[in-house]
Design brief:
243 residues, AB_hydrolase_fold, CMBL, Carboxymethylenebutenolidase homolog, 20% strand, 6 helices, 31% helix, Dienelactn_hydro, alpha/beta
């Protein structure tokens, strides 16, 4: 279980998973609970490196420490995640078999588990990169999710991508090589102002690259640490505001 007083900014001297793995119908998941009862939960959607990646489990533990039943399901359903040894020339083909907009069935399974087995009444969702795209998709489709945080991941090719159902926060790094600042401001920000009818927020963190917000303390550079901690506080604050 997670102690809420240990993770105010996510800094830990040593990292070790605090949760456990469960089987939920056809998917496995990593779950961490706070040290006290709560009826609030957060789903964490992993990036291309999958649900076993230590950095994503670190984030699950961090969020649980703030008072949420937190779960990271294997949205790849047992198939291989992207590996650092894979060739980027094959990435487009890999993505065809790992579509972040095809996560609805798994999301419904996890929502059912959280409500029926964990007693959750309010459920938010957070996702990183590939998972950020999945969060954007789900916040357009699933009204059961009371709040969403998409970190450096957006849906770019749907005309309906601005019709968010519930409050959604988009986090980006200024030096992200996958999403340019122009794409953030022109393709997302302007259209959201025009079409979105719920609370939303976009924030760009100076000097930060893709994946910055999920680094473990030992992997942080001193100049980046304040922005990493700020992004995590902002993420938690958004979830707390609406979940």
């Amino acid at each position: 279980m997670a102690d809420p007083f240990l993770y105010d900014t996510g800094e830990r001297t040593q990292y070790g998973c605090l949760g456990h793995e469960v089987q939920i119908e056809h998917i496995k998941a990593y779950v961490c609970r706070p040290s006290f009862f709560t009826d609030k939960a957060v789903i964490v959607i992993h990036d291309i490196f999958g649900w076993l990646f230590p950095d994503i489990r670190y984030i699950v533990d961090l969020i649980a420490g703030h008072g949420y039943i937190t779960i990271c399901p294997d949205f790849f359903k047992g198939t291989d995640p992207w590996k650092t040894t894979d060739h980027w020339a094959d990435f487009a083909d890999w993505m065809k078999d790992h579509d972040p907009t095809k996560v609805d069935k798994e999301a419904d399974v996890v929502l059912k588990y959280l409500k029926e087995q964990c007693g959750a009444k309010k459920i938010g969702i957070v996702g990183f990169s590939w998972g950020g795209m999945a969060v954007h998709h789900l916040m357009l489709k699933n009204p059961q999710l009371t709040a969403g945080v998409s970190l450096y991941g957006i849906i770019r090719d749907s005309e309906e991508r601005y019709n968010l159902l519930n409050p959604t926060f988009f986090i980006f790094g200024e030096k992200d090589h996958t999403i340019s600042y122009d794409q953030v401001s022109c393709c997302t920000g302007t259209k959201l102002k025009q079409y979105c009818k719920v609370a939303y927020k976009l924030k760009v963190y100076p000097g930060q690259v893709h994946g910055f917000a999920q680094l473990k303390p030992e992997d942080m550079k001193p100049d980046d640490k304040p922005y990493i901690e700020e992004a995590r506080r902002d993420m938690i604050d958004w979830i707390k505001m609406f979940t």
